């Protein structure tokens, strides 16, 4: 059996790019119906077998053995792509991290009817390969100026366990036309290869200080699930776009952030479009990894995504990409894909008393087993497809085009501290309904003060504008050199509560611990308990926990979990919620102070705030 994902050195891509594919094409399998789609076979100069797919609008070449997309041209022969490759990072049962790319596959033509042509390469595992059968498929459809790409992983029961860290298609565009990058939230000229090569790497290394004093960070191009759909690169007259009809196969649920595109330095020297299927970006580095045990049989299809070519003025190209993405979404699931027996699933969310709850975000996904709140678990779904909806004024919701299977239902709402889940939901073929989900109520208490809104984002605080902006942490030393004091009775969190709490950088290059103080009014009655609720939009791991003290007495320690969102200047990432109880006798009758100490000394050891609340409990 041929090996699947062989571990290759970093130079694998450079060597491949240096290969020239030529040879004479010949038709394979006569078309059985009308249409212009066709597939031919060709032999490259190196002897590698390739497929040539075309539909009169584009022509694409695919390596039969490696599953790589070798080239993509429009009808005039203009090249858009250097190469497209499936990139996989995984961890074996012994804890070894492996970087893999497909090699030595068994190729076949799946469909060739004139209206649709599909080819796929099958990779069967051997020793030191990821223990999955992997399929890479490319499809060209009549009337669509682009090519679809997808991959399917299958892990058989009683085969070695593994953990999936990252899975993505990387499509490297030709740099001669890829001058601008565009997403739903960003549109700007990409730095030149020369400027990138002359730049200085910062911390983290993905951020580069350019010679014109501009910072370029590829994570500024990341997108949340709701922001995706269409993104790409273009010149004044040509463009290459990645279109996603759905996000159901991407890990992390509807609030997940992933890379979309970014420029690359030499030797690649080409902007890359990324179809991110599974990643740890902007999430807990441990909980976000997909663990498949030895005994589990698991299959999942990632994609298809559409790589679209456009011509014309820039704005017209963007409009065409948006229009095509909407068409793709309407066509989903694609008619040339295997029958999946999907259906609608309806349900209702109510209060404990039976009243309907509107505006509740609901998610149908795999069951995440972690000792955290339901809304936190929802961030780590990804073993199977997920489906999202929002309740209407009557508390009703409906998921569309749901695959049959076993699911967990998650529910939450911006502004509410609680969240809910129900395990053991079975969706039959064709869909069905779910019994009403009862949303939990917060424990009764009297709020002494609250800072922020519990929505898993620090956007409402000082310097919180914009979901992602690398470099905003550099202002902390100037803004709050001696920490921060916030009086809840008079201060404004929009201007006086920073989006993140970090160690304070010093001129020597080191950092000193940071201390914040929350000042609030006195309490005469000191009987009972107080409850401190701390909701974080994200955190970056540090060796020491945050320390909370009420009027000088320690009441809580909060360990910092691993997440890179803070490194990349994001106001949200791995959301977390904590509750700490303390004796109300610690309160004073005149004035009270809650101090928060971050004793760490690395510039990125800290937290992004979501909301804090202190209550008197009965």
Overview of this protein structure:
- With 618 residues, this protein is mostly beta strands.
- It has three domains: 5-331, Beta-galactosidase, Chain A, domain 5 (Distorted Sandwich), CATH 2.70.98; 343-438, Immunoglobulins (Immunoglobulin-like), CATH 2.60.40; 446-617, Galactose-binding domain-like (Jelly Rolls), CATH 2.60.120.
- It has six helices and 46 strands.
- The strands form ten sheets. Strands 9-10-11-12-26-21-20-14-15 form a nine-stranded antiparallel β-sheet, with helices on one face. Strands 1, 7, 8, 13, 23, 24 and 25 form a seven-stranded antiparallel β-sheet that branches.
- A hairpin with a 4-residue loop joins β14 and β15.
- It is globular and about 85 Å long.
- The N and C termini lie far apart (68 Å).
- The model is unreliable at 1-32 (pLDDT under 50).
Distance between the termini: 68 Å
Mean residue pLDDT: 90
Helix content: under 10%
Q: What's the CATH topology label of the largest domain?
A: Beta-galactosidase, Chain A, domain 5
Second rung of CATH, namely the architecture of the largest domain: Distorted Sandwich
- Evaluate the radius of gyration: 26 Å
